[in-house]
Amino acid sequence: MKTIPNDLLIEGHTDATKYSSDGNYSNWELSADRANSARRLLQQNGVRSDQVTQVRGYADQFLRVKSNPFDPSNRRITILVRNETGSSTPQRLLMPG
To answer: Which of 10, 61, 75, 76: disulfide with 35, CB 3.0–4.6 Å?
Structure first.
């Protein structure tokens, strides 16, 4: 990743299992923290600080396995790579969370 010049967007996702019962830390925080952890790891390994343009947390709103909202593969990050030509259509790279 560190050798490509493209801008990156990082998304965090969870399954539908409620993360916490106390309400202080929900799947929303978990998914955002998951994406932000991926950003930190990428930047520690050479991705420029200005290359990541967005970090998003989606909780369980965009399930990978819609037929099973509790499937562990719904816990993941997605790295979107913007096209060099400036196209607004990024390419998705799925990674388990």
So the answer is: 10
14: left (phi over 0), alpha (psi -120 to 50) or beta: beta
Tell me if 8 sits within 8 A of 80, measured CB to CB: yes
How many residues comprise the chain?
Answer: 97
The torsion angles phi and psi of 35, rounded to 5 degrees, stand at -65, -40
Question: In which element (H, E) is residue 41 found?
Answer: helix 27-44
Per-residue pLDDT of the chain (97 residues; tens, 9 = 90+): 557 889 999 999 999 999 888 888 999 999 999 999 999 999 999 999 899 999 999 999 999 999 999 999 999 999 999 986 555 555 555 556 5
Amino acid 18 reads: K
Q: How many CB atoms lie within 10 A of CB 25?
A: 11
Question: Alpha-carbon distance 48 to 13, whole Å?
Answer: 23
Place of tokens 């369980």: 60
Cβ neighbors of 28 (< 8 A, separation 6 or more) are 57, 59
